[in-house]
Specification:
five-stranded mixed sheet, elongated
Length: 321
């Protein structure tokens, strides 16, 4: 009996270790404020005539040695705490190698959605948390010190989940990397605890994303179309709600808008992982939306669908050819 109890305890301990081993994937990025303040941006004009300053990350990394040192040091600090990392410079190179251009998608309003470089970087890296970094190096006589502001941002929702800021100690000869290390080291445990609390919440309640279902121009049906499903005659919109309820973690989702030709879902909680062919794999918005699309293509519906990933945290399911 004692051996059985010890065996069960050992198994539970190993399971706990396995659960604790999962940590959010981090990517350190320069903040918009840093890029604009240092001139690493391009200007665009929106349809309303307003000028927007869009960060030019490639130029920032190529032109600013201090930025490279700070990002490298912060990446090392996170790696020392066993957080998996994605390198932003390598991600940009991967985008260029694969010729990942600005994505254009036609929405239900017949407008064209263009993905920014920031969105394309997020989609390529597939990081869970973006470590948004702003810093300035100040002179104090012969010495210099660093002011910093770091935010942990959920890559799917753009919500800030952790933050730290402050000033470092003046130094006569320290590099930018050493200045940031000495400045942030005292606050990193609290910062990392906040990141882990957010990630553990996603384990329990699912990752938050948004989804939209809408009809193409040539769709031969609408969302009020009735189907026999599970012994009842139900509208397609109600079938969609049923599927979401069955597959969202804790049945958590809400409609933010709907009509005969579209439904917008927000606060959609999707699982982080799923076992596929005996192996656990990470789940993203596109994978989850594709599962719903395959459901609609099957019996008794036979509805043709297409899935477009619009940014990392949103997907469109288009009904119709």
């Amino acid at each position: 009996m004692r051996k059985i109890v010890l065996t069960i305890c050992l198994m539970l301990f190993c399971l706990c270790l396995g659960a604790q081993a999962k940590r959010p994937i981090i990517m350190v990025i320069p903040s918009d404020a840093f890029c604009v303040r240092n001139g690493y941006y391009t200007e665009t004009i929106d349809p309303d005539g307003r000028t927007n300053r869009v960060p030019d990350y490639k130029t920032a990394f190529q032109s600013n040695e201090q930025l490279r040192l700070v990002v490298s040091e912060l990446s090392t600090i996170m790696a020392d705490r066993s957080f998996p990392l994605k390198d932003m410079e390598q991600t940009i190179r991967k985008m260029e190698t694969q010729q990942i251009g600005v994505g254009k998608f036609v929405g239900r309003s017949e407008g064209v959605i263009e993905l920014s470089e920031y969105d394309r970087i997020k989609m390529t890296a597939r990081a869970d948390i973006l470590m948004d970094v702003d810093f300035t190096i100040h002179k104090d006589g012969a010495k210099q010190y660093i002011s910093f502001n770091i935010k942990g941002v959920d890559a799917y929702t753009a919500k800030v989940v952790a933050a730290a800021s402050g000033d470092g100690t003046p130094s006569l000869s320290a590099s930018a990397g050493l200045l940031i290390e000495e400045a942030v080291i005292g606050c990193m445990d609290g910062f990392n605890d906040a990141l882990m609390a957010h990630f553990e919440d996603m384990f329990d309640r699912g990752r938050e994303v948004t989804m939209s279902v809408f009809l193409s121009d040539n769709a031969a049906l609408n969302l009020e179309e009735a189907y026999y499903f599970k012994g009842e005659l139900v509208r397609l919109s109600d079938v969609l709600d049923w599927w979401m309820s069955e597959h969202c973690v804790g049945e958590a989702f809400s409609r933010s808008g709907s009509g005969m030709s579209y439904i917008d879902y927000e606060q959609v909680r999707i699982p982080l992982f799923k076992t596929v062919l005996g192996k656990e794999r990470a789940i993203d918005t596109r994978y989850f939306a594709t599962e719903l699309a395959r459901f609609l293509e099957g019996e008794p519906f036979g509805i043709p669908t297409q899935v477009d990933e619009i940014g990392l945290g949103h997907a469109n399911i288009i009904i119709g050819e």
